[in-house]
Design brief:
The protein is α+β, with helices and mostly antiparallel strands. The chain is built from two helices and three strands, in the order H-H-E-E-E.
């Protein structure tokens, strides 16, 4: 079966076969339950009041992640 779901699944108008298939699929463990997911890492930061660049110290609104610190566009290695 594909990842797509039928609209009937959300309206409650499913047959007994559909219910059994859904319950079987839902019973399978997902990869996310393994605990191997790493935390998301921010790549961009914006502050309307301005924030100092970690490299040059200039106060800017937009910063990009570079080697664990947030730097301005001029200091970012593209």
């Amino acid at each position: 079966m594909t990842e797509d779901r039928s609209l009937e699944e959300f309206t409650g108008e499913r047959s007994a076969d559909d219910n059994a298939e859904t319950e079987e699929r839902d019973a399978e463990p997902s990869d996310a339950a393994d605990g191997d997911a790493s935390a998301a890492v921010a790549t961009y930061r914006w502050d309307p009041e301005g924030v100092d660049c970690a490299a040059c110290g200039e106060s800017v609104e937009r910063l990009w992640n570079a080697d664990g610190g947030f730097v301005c566009e001029a200091c970012k290695e593209w």
